[in-house]
Design goal:
CATH superfamily of the largest domain: RNA polymerase sigma factor, region 2, helix turn helix motif
CATH class of the largest domain: Mainly Alpha
Helix content: over 70%
Number of domains: 2
Number of strands: 0
């Protein structure tokens, strides 16, 4: 299905779901769950937290869909909900880490959990790993803009709506992100 046809189909599903068609809402959720989950994962950096964020976002989407005036903005609207939920989750996680750190400092220290390390991959995937690592190293706001622009194919205006920032801010974030990615990839540094 072409991107235009996919967008039209999503608009149809959003309009039908807004009118109360449960099957259309189910189909919309089926089509959008992977995208919203991926956005939550990019922002939260944790698969389990991302699933919780996406689930909470779907509850918000279900409640708010009837008030969505223009179904053409569904993608930006849905991403904005996920972004807000992710920001809330990140704030909670930072607060919890701060409290745990304070507790550990008071009680003689504590170790960190084991880090997840992927098995050795083929040499052909080295550049792909470097790119993903460089993207993960970007500040959260730049990482979100890059993902929505390059992976989700949203326009600058749609990204601005999704992230609730001016279009100029999105352009600036993309410019800085591209510069950082270029430096990271051309720098040829080794990932440990």
């Amino acid at each position: 299905m072409s991107r235009r046809a996919a967008r039209l189909f999503d608009e149809y599903l959003a309009a039908a779901a807004r009118a109360g068609d449960r099957a259309a809402f189910g189909r919309l959720a089926e089509r959008w769950q992977p995208k919203l989950l991926a956005q939550a994962c990019r922002l939260a950096g944790d698969g389990e937290a991302a699933r919780d964020i996406a689930q909470e976002a779907w509850a918000d989407i279900a409640k708010g869909l009837s008030g969505l005036d223009d179904v053409r903005v569904f993608p930006a609207w849905a991403y904005r909900i996920v972004s807000r939920r992710a920001a809330d989750a990140i704030r909670r996680r930072q607060r919890d880490r701060r409290l745990a750190s304070e507790y550990a400092a008071e009680n003689g220290g504590a170790g960190h959990g084991a880090t997840d390390e992927s098995a050795k991959q083929t040499e052909a995937r080295a550049d792909d790993r470097r790119l993903h690592a460089a993207i993960r190293a970007l500040p959260r706001d730049q990482r979100a803009a890059v993902a929505l622009f390059y992976q989700e194919d949203l326009s600058v205006a749609e990204i601005a709506a999704a992230l609730q920032v001016p279009a100029g801010t999105v352009k600036t974030r993309l410019m800085h992100a591209r510069r950082k990615l270029r430096q990271a990839l051309e720098g040829g540094g080794c990932d440990g």
